[in-house]
Specification:
Belongs to the RIPOR family. It is a single chain. The strands form two sheets. The protein has a five-stranded mixed β-sheet with strand order 1-6-2-10-9, with no helix packed on it. A five-stranded antiparallel β-sheet has the order 5-4-3-7-8, with no helix packed on it. A hairpin with a 5-residue loop joins β7 and β8. Among the domains are: 130 residues, no CATH class; 117 residues, C2 domain (Immunoglobulin-like, Sandwich), CATH 2.60.40. The chain is built from five helices and ten strands. α1 packs antiparallel against α2 and α2 packs antiparallel against α3. The protein is flat. Helix content is 40%, strand content 19%. It is an alpha+beta fold.
Length: 373
């Protein structure tokens, strides 16, 4: 996959080409877009690290003062593609399980079939929940579009009454009414935009490490600071002698935002008072709405000799809106594990000869126990 650099006006100027990269470059407006090849550096982490959520704010951030309809359109299209991919992945898993149940009914124990049936019902519940979530997002977007059209109409009326001669009392009243409607529709758009933002789920970002061509040396220490709206993540790492990397933090959960971009700053720590900023980039995040985990690479400096590798997993539901443990099959990594688990052949049902043998052994044991052997 490929993500674009944040433009200064926050308007997409180039079509995104799909690849296995996270095309974050310096935020200069005249810098070209860049596609990178995927890589997975060797990283060792400290034990005991866990997922952190460094938010001091509530789940719902305050609504914006100025709506961003063009940006919301882009995020909505990317979100719909991600939800569609999520549905397709789980539908394939459901079909695979259903096929295995049909093929295993004649030669399987009841316990194995019961376990498969329970997993099928769990996926069906999650699919229904995912479809309801998609329909809710569609309703919010339709309501947003209605308010946008009303706001545009009120804006045209204000413009028409302002350019004319507001000498009459009726004209002044009409201008005041149109201005009041414009303000009301603007507030409604901001509220709907904030509500839609709260339905975007979570981004689980896992640190995989830095990679550099003759840039990383044993003993180097780096600090990475990520900023996403009000959300912050700061971590420090060290390059070991065996080319491994040790980081004090492993994973972070970010709530997706509509108008904000992910800012990444990498600093090399040389001494107590001598820190060198290697790169400061700002990246697009709407392409992270995907069903499967993505390994993305960020260009930290201009030449691309230092890259940051991240693994991003999108969860369409946040932690305050999670399904029960029995139906939590919404992670793509879990889906991949289950694909391999379901491919295992079911245990065979004992034949009549084997059943007769087991009965005779049981009867012999009873006779020996009562002293009649």
């Amino acid at each position: 996959m490929s993500l674009s650099v944040r433009p200064q006006r926050r308007v997409l100027v180039t079509k995104i080409n799909r690849s296995q990269s996270f095309a974050g470059v310096n935020s200069s407006a005249d810098r070209p877009f860049r596609n990178l090849s995927p890589f997975t550096p060797t990283v060792s982490r400290k034990t005991g690290s866990r997922v952190s959520r460094m938010f001091s704010m509530s789940h719902k951030s305050p609504p914006p003062k100025v709506p961003q309809p063009n940006r919301l359109d882009e995020v909505y299209e990317a979100l719909k593609k991600g939800l569609t991919a999520y549905l397709e992945v789980h539908q394939l898993e459901l079909e695979k399980l259903s096929t295995q149940i049909r093929e295993s009914k004649r030669n399987s124990r009841l316990g194995f079939l019961y376990d498969l049936d329970k997993q099928v019902k769990s996926i069906e519940r999650f699919l229904r929940r995912l479809e309801f979530h998609a329909s809710k997002i569609d309703e919010l977007y339709e309501a947003y579009c209605i308010q946008r059209r009303l706001r545009d109409g009120a804006h045209n009326m204000v413009k028409a009454y302002s350019t004319g001669s507001p000498g009459s009392r009726e004209a002044r009243e009409s201008l005041a009414e149109a201005s009041k409607g414009y303000k009301e529709y603007t507030e409604n758009m901001c509220l709907l935009e904030n509500e839609l933002e709260s339905q975007l789920g979570e981004f689980h970002i896992r640190m995989k490490g830095l990679a550099g061509f003759a840039r990383l040396c044993a003993g180097d220490q780096y600090e990475i600071f990520m900023k996403y709206g009000r959300q912050r993540w700061k971590l420090r790492g060290r390059i070991e002698v065996n080319s491994k990397q040790v980081w004090d933090s492993e994973e972070m959960v970010f709530l997706p935002l509509v108008t904000e971009f992910l800012s990444i700053k990498v600093t090399e720590l040389k001494s107590l008072a001598n820190h060198v900023v290697v790169g400061n980039v700002s990246c697009e995040t709407k392409d992270l709405f995907a069903a499967l985990p993505q390994v993305v690479a960020v260009d930290i400096n201009d030449l691309g000799t230092l890259k940051l590798s991240l693994e991003v997993t999108w969860n369409p539901f946040d932690k305050d809106d999670q399904p029960s443990a029995a139906s939590s099959v919404n992670k793509a990594s879990t889906v991949n594990k289950r694909f391999s688990t379901y491919n295992q052949s079911p245990p065979d049902t004992p034949s009549l000869r084997e059943q007769a043998f087991y009965v005779s052994v049981h009867q012999a044991g009873l006779l020996r126990r009562h002293g009649r052997w």
